[in-house]
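To the team - zinc ion complex, inputs and output below.
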Amino acid sequence: MRRTSKERLAEKLAFFGRFGADARGGITRPALSLPDLEARAEFRRRCTELGLEVTCDDMGNIYAVRQGTENLPGPAMGSHVDSVVNGGNYDGMLGVLAALEVLETMVRDGISTRRPVSAVIWTNEEGVRFPPAMMSSGVLTGKFDKAAVLAVKDADGVSFGEALRAGGMQGDITARLSPRNCTAYLELHIEQGPVLYESGESIGVVQGVVGMCNYTISAFGRAGHAGGTPMGRRRDALYAASKVICDLYDKLGRIGGGPVFTFGHIECRPNMHTIIPAEVSFSLDARHRDPDIMRRVVEVIEALPAEVEGCRMEYREAWSRKSTLFDPALVACVKKNADALGCAGRFMYSGPGHDAQYVQDMLPAAMIFVPSIDGLSHCADEKTSLDDCRNGVDVLLNTVLEIAGK
Ligand SMILES: [Zn+2]
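Output:
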């Protein structure tokens, strides 16, 4: 089995962690912002120095290719370098630096392969600056319309298309990852949950990404004076919404098999301390890999009452996504290489979404997870031990070498 360099990986993680380092000790690196562009430029500089061919497609996705001995399609690895606001240095970035370290190991150790091996940086995975998430892999795999996506504006009114042009990231459509140039896609990522950390296993062999639904639930009441309106005369939308949330916690929590659900966003109007809330909307995000369990989640939502505490209720599906199953042969190849490296490899599903799940629709794809300390992610304390990172990169290297062939 081949090994990558722990020292080189540590240097990469520290060096790239400068881009977007914020005052709160985390990383703020929105898609196509200055720190995102700086990280991309550094990636390109290092790849060019290693003698790799670097290209960019029309969605700003960057590719670095190490040619094989034959002119064939080959495996690709990658992830994203954009981050959430005050996120950590491992989400996405680890997968990109892992891909870079794999290519660097191949160059420095003189490992030649029959097929070419590529590294990919996907543009705007987080969808924080320009919604939706996984925007560019979504366009490449036909999930989103390119023109509509280019027109999406950030909070300052800058469109995604303008940001691509301004950042010099609008490349050629022919450079896109596709079945024409790629045989398999692998993504190393932090787990972003506590399963591996708590079980002490160092590698997650990801079989798929769980399906999810997202609802917007609204309560419509009546505004009134906080002092002048007797309690019995109110139609308080926040009271109704809170009752529905508690009711959903109860009912969804009783569904066997454990779907996860979150009420992460809430809007209250007019949101003034002297006014009875007239309208409250909140989000419900629910996820599970089993479509039958997701159906039961939807049944619970659809059975909610039309009126609560005198307020009219509305339940609207914002969007939903089916579970993705990764390519079984590729998943088995990851497991075999994890075992051969002596890493305890656990089969698991991803709760968070990843570019790999869209790529699976056009190419065989799979993911490798490494433990998140205390399960933390999307925060400044996000961390994975260097040994676990290195194990993940070694599994990636050996899996890719097996696919690329001698
Ligand atoms: Zn990520």
